[in-house]
């Protein structure tokens, strides 16, 4: 066979205006690229991991000792969190979009007995798992949560905090309260909310496990570290059941971060090979988050999201999301059904917006780490260009007026 050696791969810079990954800060890229070659037991790498763990506790708002990063992306952290779910465990999983749907699949795979898994290996339907489906475009609300937990009294109850598939936020206060009331243990996919919304996980005592990702609100690179945090109750449950994973074991994976036998150690011990580059990048992303402050950052997301939303509504689009980092919408009636075409036209020009990944097809525009008037003006004008090419009427003067009013007012208020 002939061996093909391809030309060197070059990947262009794009405007990453989707649900994630976000636009990586220069400081994070520099930290990644300028780390020295050092092995995973080098003192500065181990110290960096301990510092990351401490910064992460501050960002997540927790005293949980078991708070650290899982190498990989969001699904890596989620896999660690869901590893406490064992075959036969009772689980209620709330699903209102693509990602909570995949969380549901993860839970079904882990809760399935050997027979249930063999019966449908890629899509098991264990009797012990109840999937509560909430329609696309709607949030998971207190009444739905309480009713399901009252009826099923499960060991575990899980949902996404912010469902990035449809851009809907779900009520974690209600999940926490219902878990306490019905003696369930809550597990939350906080992949899209951590680093965007200002919340402290210790304010939700019914939720025992949390998992997030590097490249959305935390603004680090994918394949660095997915933040996770587990309460003592979660760890006790896991100690009692065990789990069938070495590398993604919630207790063992914590060792390299200096969490050993439930206590902080001065430095970590070997679990697997960590990357000095990834540690340096993650460390810098956490520093940036703490320097900006979650309160200021979440306020900024609220402000810029409302400007983008107003501009899209001026173009006649119907916004159905309520997240502050992502706007999900339908085109005006006459252009319904042409969402994918518009998204593909934008993507072809390195303006990286997204469609929804499950039906119905909607457009998603995200603003992760794009928090400035310049960025929002660019996103709106690029989108308006593409919309006009599709034949949509766009009133540029009205758009300019809306953005000027929005941005002018705050400058005046400052
Ligand atoms: C992005 C996302 C995931 C998956 O994260 P990856 O980093 O792609 O592995 C899971 N859940 C939610 C809510 C997400 O937004």
How would the blueprint of this fold be written?
Layout: H1 26-34, H2 43-60, E1 66-72, H3 74-82, E2 91-95, H4 98-111, H5 114-119, E3 129-133, H6 142-152, E4 156-160, E5 162-163, E6 168-169, H7 172-182, E7 185-189, E8 207-211, E9 224-230, H8 232-241, E10 259-260, E11 263-264, H9 276-292, H10 294-314, E12 318-319, E13 326-330, H11 339-348, E14 354-355, E15 363-366, H12 373-389, H13 396-413
Parallel strand pairs: 2-3, 2-4, 4-7, 7-8
Antiparallel strand pairs: 1-9, 5-6, 8-9, 10-11, 12-13, 13-15, 14-15
Helix pairs in contact: 1-9, 2-9, 6-7, 10-12, 10-13, 12-13
The structure holds pyridoxal-5'-phosphate.
Which blocks of ≥5 consecutive residues have pLDDT under 50?
none
Number of DSSP helical runs? 13
Oligomer: single chain
Bound ligands, each once: pyridoxal-5'-phosphate
Q: Per CATH, which architecture of the largest domain?
A: 3-Layer(aba) Sandwich
Give your account of this protein's structure:
Keywords: Aminotransferase, Pyridoxal phosphate, Transferase. One of its GO terms (molecular function) is L-serine-pyruvate transaminase activity. InterPro entries: PyrdxlP-dep_Trfase, PyrdxlP-dep_Trfase_major, PyrdxlP-dep_Trfase_small, SP_NH2Trfase/AEP_transaminase. It comes from Poseidonocella sedimentorum. With 414 residues, the protein is of the alpha/beta class. The chain folds into two domains: 26-290, Aspartate Aminotransferase, domain 2 (3-Layer(aba) Sandwich); 294-407, Aspartate Aminotransferase, domain 1. It has 13 helices and 15 strands. The strands form four sheets. Strands 1-9-8-7-4-2-3 form a seven-stranded mixed beta sheet, sandwiched between helices. The model has no long low-confidence stretch (mean pLDDT 96). The structure holds pyridoxal-5'-phosphate. Pyridoxal-5'-phosphate binds at residues 20, 73-75, 99, 160, 164, 189, 191-192, 213.
């Amino acid at each position: 066979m002939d061996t093909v050696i391809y030309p060197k791969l070059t990947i262009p810079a794009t405007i990453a205006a989707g649900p994630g990954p976000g636009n990586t800060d220069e400081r994070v890229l520099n930290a990644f690229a300028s780390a020295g070659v050092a092995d995973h037991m080098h003192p500065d790498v181990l110290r960096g991991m301990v510092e990351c763990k401490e910064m992460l506790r501050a960002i997540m708002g927790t005293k949980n000792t078991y708070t650290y990063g899982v190498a990989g992306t969001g699904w890596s952290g989620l896999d660690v969190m869901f590893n406490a779910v064992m075959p036969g465990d009772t689980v209620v999983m709330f699903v209102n979009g693509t990602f909570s749907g995949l969380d549901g699949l993860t839970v079904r795979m882990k809760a399935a007995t050997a027979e249930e898994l063999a019966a449908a290996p890629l899509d098991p339907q264990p009797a012990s798992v109840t999937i509560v489906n909430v329609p696309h475009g709607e949030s998971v609300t207190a009444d739905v949560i309480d009713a399901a937990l009252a009826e099923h009294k499960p060991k575990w109850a899980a949902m996404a905090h912010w469902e990035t598939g449809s851009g809907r936020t779900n009520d974690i206060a209600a999940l926490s309260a219902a878990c306490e009331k019905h003696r369930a243990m809550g597990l939350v996919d906080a992949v899209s909310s951590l680093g965007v919304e200002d919340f402290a996980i210790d304010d939700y005592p019914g939720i025992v496990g949390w998992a997030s990702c590097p490249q959305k609100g935390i603004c680090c690179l994918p394949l660095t570290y997915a933040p996770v945090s587990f309460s003592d109750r979660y760890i006790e449950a896991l100690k009692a059941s065990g789990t069938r994973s070495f590398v993604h074991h919630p207790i063992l994976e914590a060792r390299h971060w200096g969490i050993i036998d439930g206590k902080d150690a001065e430095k970590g011990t070997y679990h697997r090979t960590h990357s000095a580059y990834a540690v340096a990048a993650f460390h810098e992303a956490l520093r940036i988050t703490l320097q900006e402050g979650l309160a200021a950052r979440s306020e900024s997301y609220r402000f810029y999201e409302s400007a983008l939303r107003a501009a899209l509504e001026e173009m006649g689009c119907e916004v159905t999301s309520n997240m502050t980092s992502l706007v999900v919408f339908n085109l005006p009636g006459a252009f319904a059904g042409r969402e994918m075409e518009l998204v593909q036209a934008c993507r072809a020009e390195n303006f990286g917006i997204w469609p929804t990944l499950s039906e119905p097809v909607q457009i998603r525009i995200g603003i992760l780490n794009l928090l400035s008037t310049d960025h929002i003006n660019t996103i709106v004008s690029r989108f308006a260009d593409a919309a006009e090419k599709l034949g949509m009427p766009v009133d540029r003067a009205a758009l300019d007026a809306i953005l000027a009013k929005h941005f002018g007012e705050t400058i005046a208020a400052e």
